[in-house]
Amino acid sequence: MARKFFIGGNWKCNGTLEEVKKIVSMLNEAEVPSENFVEVVVSPPFVFLPLVESLLRPDFQVAAQNCWVRKGGAFTGEISAEMLVNLGIPCVILGHSERRSLLNESNEFVGDKVAYALSVGLKVIACIGETLQQRESGSTMAVVAAQTKAIADKVSNWTHVVLAYEPVWAIGTGKVATPGQAQEVHLELRKWLHDSVGAEVAATTRIIYGGSVNGANCRELSAQPDIDGFLVGGASLKPEFADIIRSLT
Ligand code: PEP
Fold first, then answer.
1. 158 alpha carbon to ligand 1 midpoint, in Å?
2. How remote is the CA of residue 172 from the centroid of ligand 1, in Å?
């Protein structure tokens, strides 16, 4: 079964009200392939989610950049998965490497978050990826398999999961993985899903690449058979995001 391309724009902790409105206008005017070919999701900071959701073209969706690990309550500063559902936000990014490293989110914690978000009806972009040190020591596959296993241990239905392979050394560095490097890990991940979860999940789960994707390198990456789209950081704030979407056809 063909997998529909998926592209996420992670705006991270960027933007003023004025800048956010400009980005949305730019997206609304962009000529991109139909939603039958590519699913586009943009992820503004929490405070701008309702505004972006209300202004954004209907063929694009919005995602939060995080949510709390279980039902809301006395967790000051957190945003619950139920709140996102209540606001009509369909999707959430979980396990981004910036949260794993800066906020010490463990594999198990991310697995719990993914399971909880799915249980309330959110779609999840679940991020995994190795550091430079881990790659250089030859443990890339062991690292991403352990991160994926922590999710697989808690999740039985993968229909609403998109797996984002984002090598940490490529995020925000301008040092993109080569198409060969990315394809190698995506293929291994698909084999891991096949052997550890099941053939159907391996065949249907979108595995997208993230890490310094831009208008110049996206076409070669998207031509790889196991790359089903991108999670884009810096370039998702610029008009070149539309070029990256167009590369997925
Ligand atoms: C990201 O933050 O998920 C990301 C891929 O960032 P960038 O595209 O800027 O490397």
1. 24
2. 5
Fold of 5-246: TIM Barrel (3.20.20)
pLDDT confidence of residue 36: 86
Whose structure tokens read 């979407």?
245
Nearest CA to ligand 1 atom 7: 233
Q: Name, in order, each residue with C-beta under 8 angstroms of 104's C-beta and a sequence gap of 6 or more.
A: none
Q: Is 232 in the pocket of ligand 1 (CB under 6 A)?
A: yes
* C-beta neighbour count of 213 within 10 angstroms: 30
Q: If you take atom 4 of ligand 1, which residue's CA is the nearest one? A: 233
Percent with pLDDT over 90 in the chain:
97
Does residue 95's CB lie within 6 angstroms of at least one atom of ligand 1?
no
Rounded to the nearest angstrom, the distance between the alpha carbon of 211 and the centre of ligand 1 is 5
Q: Which residue has the tokens 């906020």?
A: 103
Nearest Cα residue to atom 2 of ligand 1: 233
Going 65 to 240 to 242 to 164, the CA torsion angle's sign is negative
pLDDT of 1 > 90? The answer is no
State residue 35's pLDDT score: 87
Entry pTM = 0.97
Collapse the DSSP code of 199 into the 3-class scheme (helix H, G, I; strand E, B; otherwise coil) and give the result.
Answer: helix
Instruction: Give dist(CA 121, CA 189) in Å, integer.
Output: 25
Nearest to 32 by CA among 221, 236, 242: 242
Q: Which residue, chain included where needed, has tokens 């709390």?
A: 68
Residue entry with tokens 């309550």: 73
DSSP 159-209: TTEEEEE--GGGTTTS-PPPHHHHHHHHHHHHHHHHHHT-HHHHHH--EEE
